[in-house]
Design goal:
Shape of chain A: elongated
Oligomer: heterodimer
Largest sheet of chain A: 5 strands, antiparallel
Number of helices of chain B: 2
Number of domains of chain B: 1
CATH architecture of chain B: Roll
Structural class of chain B: alpha+beta
CATH topology of chain B: Ubiquitin-like (UB roll)
Shape of chain B: globular
CATH topology of chain A: Aldehyde Oxidoreductase, domain 3
Distance between the termini of chain B: 38 Å
Helix content of chain B: 10-25%
Largest interface: A-B, 33 and 21 residues
Largest sheet of chain B: 5 strands, mixed
Strand order of the largest sheet of chain B: 2-1-5-3-4
CATH superfamily of chain A: Molybdopterin biosynthesis MoaE subunit
Chain lengths: 150, 79
């Protein structure tokens, strides 16, 4: 399994062991954390949900693409779902390889593709009591603005 | 025919449910989404969504079959 979800905090020490390889001289990882602001709003917590069957299949495809594209030994991505607070880790990506360059490149490729392709949704809760689904609220209201100014 | 629909994120909130089995005459996901938008007033347009049938990405014009599991996917925001 190259991509998986967890409801619990991500066990990076355990996950790292899955990438050990006698031929690997380098290991790189990326962690995505919950930040306290977005689009000018003060964020207090996030809720992540996923269409898990399709998300795991698509996540597995992305990691398989990374393994085909870069000369790496192993790669893994773990995404958390549920309610997360500030500073919590939402996603962890890692790759091991003979040399450092391809491990960095593979991590960057995987996180970029995951953000664009995997059916995961994020609801932000703000200090002022509002909340919103990231990437959904603005695109939903955009046509109304366009109409108003037409 | 009957199809099974699951809703996630904004779609779930706007539909007020996480899923349903629906008797429909819709022949494609595009027809089905138009029917559901009439019922629930979804604010996202078809061009902002993707569609999955039986847990795989599908085309909006793919013919629906009885018992298909359909999901309309709002813009994703992982990471």
């Amino acid at each position: 399994m190259r991509f998986r979800f967890t409801q619990a905090p991500i066990d990076t020490a355990g996950a790292r062991r899955e990438l050990l390889d006698p031929g690997a001289g380098g290991f790189a990882s990326f962690e995505g954390w919950v930040r306290d602001f977005n689009e000018g709003q003060q964020v207090t917590r996030l809720e992540y949900e996923a269409f898990e069957e399709l998300a795991v299949a698509e996540g597995d495809r992305i990691v398989a693409e990374a393994l085909a594209r870069f000369p790496i030994k192993h790669a893994l991505c773990i995404h958390r779902i549920g309610t997360l607070g500030l500073g919590d880790m939402a996603v962890w990506v890692a790759a091991s390889s003979a040399h450092r360059g391809e491990a960095f490149d593979a991590c960057r490729f995987i996180i970029d593709e995951v953000k664009h392709r995997v059916p995961i949704w994020k609801k932000e809760h703000y200090r002022n009591g509002d909340s919103g689904w990231v990437n959904c609220e603005r695109c939903a209201t955009a046509p109304r603005h366009a109409h108003t100014h037409a | 025919m009957q199809v099974n629909i699951r809703y996630f994120a904004l779609m779930r909130e706007q539909a007020g449910r996480s899923g349903e089995t629906l008797e429909t005459t819709a022949r494609t996901p595009a027809d089905l989404y138009a029917e559901l938008t009439g019922r629930y007033g979804f604010t996202l347009g078809e061009e902002q969504l993707k569609v999955a049938i039986n847990s795989e990405f599908a085309d909006w014009s793919q013919p629906l079959a009885a018992g298909d599991a359909v999901v309309f996917l709002p813009p994703v925001a992982g990471g």
